[in-house]
């Protein structure tokens, strides 16, 4: 590990040596986890609880001819079997998606992907429920599936969504950003143009804990308590109210400890809805927890973008323009989760980190007979796809111009004085010092020495590759003037109460899936209020206990909720000033703040601590007019802009010339996420994302055969990096605070997942370049690398 | 069928269906929910427990196969208020995030340190290579195990230390 401090101590930087607040502290949530006392959804047992299991379609596209549940119902322990026909009667057979489409909860007319939900068995125990699945008799009339997105718009292609009146094709949307005419004009005069089809294959977030729910409907009050694996409990509450008709004040969503999310737990899945229906139907709590195959086959895939990319430059390496046409495979239902106005998410940040004159993208979304989902897996709303595109194109340009890829990037990076920087597709990047980050990563890597080593190895026929990527993220969605999800503005609330003895509880609207919110948010309050983090409890994940907000995804917790927490703490601090003034019998404007205490200007010995002020507020101090008797506050934060974390990554690989096996020997990651609250947690987030990058670049993908069979439906087929496939990460950082964020923090949860795949891919292509390889698509599995080495096209996936 | 085993030092006897998996027996019957379930195919290792001191994937062991054996779950790692050095190490070195793979990782680490008190990085990586963590990227787990190796005895109530 290398932690290289490159900045002068910055009061806002978070790594300053402070007695309170920011810095490396142990996590407050760890003591329960290391004792096995975490509390996950599947750990919940309620009195009288039943177990649900879903029968799933073995085929990808078929008319449903009949379902006979007689034998299943007769099985000992089975309480109920629910089919699509039952749901039609309840008007719950179809549920709205997060993208203005609908998704079948249970099949009523036609199966549209392998693994789709067909029937729901409810039984006394999990074994009986599973047994009964095999006793349901279903007759399918199998249809030709549409598997290859490239064929989805062919004339005569089977129409997947024929239940939608008037629909005659599989087209979902066309979406554009940038200026086509301007971009074409620049391309027309460019010295050099590089074109490449770049495929970001389908993958899956696959958190260790699969998705699940325990629904408890109480019929007398008409109240639903739903324990579920949710990254967005408040948004789920609103959506469940809309879907189910249960009034929102009668719904409580509890998202307890979550065993990883990575985007998998943003959406509302049929299983959750079925647990609720099951509880209503049976009058008893119903648990549903998917197994690993169900997780990989049905809940929220990621990526699946086929990108035609082009980059234009002058002959001396000034990048001029970039354009792309994208075919987006959205599966059988358009259930991608992103701000409503952005059907391709934030893909239009594909201009990357470079000062470019013109840019244009067009994205076409299509239906196929595959599982729905699309925006998931730590992608920052498709910034992953954008960064792979631009970083691969820049590398190919460097190759064509015969210049070093790091040098080409240094030449074209946006300069510090250009911030705030308006790119050509509508983003305003908040702050950055890109060259500093890239030079630091090169320094840690020993870049020049690596190139020398590579030269020597190449002379001996060894395949060593060095890959560079530079990424700019756009996270912390988002301003209500631009962004919403199904009509809900993307704000987050925070509520802070200082108890009379000076201990605090802060309630937040975002939900941790391992990011350490209970620690980080306590540190933010600690820094602002001046009481130690251990005196601050963070409450999250329960809609009855927390203010409304849109949840944790797209690296938005610190940028949005973190800002809310800082501001609510400042509001409390300001209120404390008035109370302190009353206690000290002076004027508020005569007081000065130091951490944890208001004191009289010029007389530091006369003051009141937060604890004293809290006791005074709740006690008998005569309060100024307009100040009520507590030390509490709440805010809802609407971010004025997104934040733009960035980083420079360098990967070193060795490719076995005999097998095509890729070994990641070194990986250097320099991240800039603005102000750093807890460096230990930040480093952990980066390490995890880098490992995802190795997975996506080398191993992980969800393939399908021609019949639509999912070929990645278990951990035997969908390969996840273990400790043996990843190196000891080498990390560094720079700090460029966000100018518009209350504490200057930018978010870091997805940076490494976004930034690392192109560094690894660029390294592999670099290793293979002596063999004439200029591009291959991920994942760089041994078979695919071997094919590339032989000059063959990478095999389809 | 009736089975008996020692779980975290306690003798237990229960009647179970022969097909019940050890992971379900531990979680549903004994209500020791620190042992998690993650994949069904022996790939992820979140269900690892120790059987007679050896890590096994309890999703691929029938409860009946544990008859007559000694099982240790994560709940059995600490001694009263005293954490196992492995538990302390995971907290010190940020060896966990979501906590789901953590019990299995710690039990494997404990078994490794029992047979090899001073493992190097490669030995640690090999030991945990049958288990998946999606959060940490493994480097901090390696550091956590090394921390435990370097601190074989942890002071009582060390876990109550106020975060510095």
TrEMBL record, chain A:
UniProt KW keywords: Molybdenum, Oxidoreductase
MF terms in GO: anaerobic carbon-monoxide dehydrogenase activity; copper ion binding; iron ion binding; molybdenum ion binding
Cofactor(s) required, per the database record: Mo-molybdopterin cytosine dinucleotide
Region (Disordered): 1-22
Sequence ranges assigned to domain Aldehyde oxidase/xanthine dehydrogenase a/b hammerhead in this UniProt record: 35-144
InterPro entries named in the record: Ald_Oxase/Xan_DH_a/b, Ald_Oxase/Xan_DH_a/b_sf, Ald_Oxase/xanthine_DH-like, AldOxase/xan_DH_MoCoBD1, AldOxase/xan_DH_MoCoBD2, AldOxase/xan_DH_Mopterin-bd_sf, CO_Mo_DH_lsu
Origin superkingdom: Bacteria
Presence of keyword Endoplasmic reticulum: no
Protein name stated in the entry: Carbon-monoxide dehydrogenase large subunit
Originating organism: Cryobacterium fucosi
Taxon lineage: Bacteria, Bacillati, Actinomycetota, Actinomycetes, Micrococcales
UniProtKB/TrEMBL annotation, chain B:
Record-linked Gene3D superfamilies: 3.10.20.30, [2Fe-2S]-binding domain
Pfam family of the protein (one): Fer2
Pathway: Alkaloid degradation; nicotine degradation
Keywords of this entry: 2Fe-2S, Iron, Iron-sulfur, Metal-binding, Oxidoreductase
Matches recorded under InterPro entries: 2Fe-2S-bd, 2Fe-2S-bd_dom_sf, 2Fe-2S_ferredoxin-like_sf, 2Fe-2S_ferredoxin-type, Beta-grasp_dom_sf, Diverse_Oxidoreductases
A GO term, aspect molecular function: metal ion binding
2Fe-2S ferredoxin-type domain mapped to chain residues: 1-77
Name this polypeptide is given: (2Fe-2S)-binding protein
Organism the protein comes from: Cryobacterium fucosi
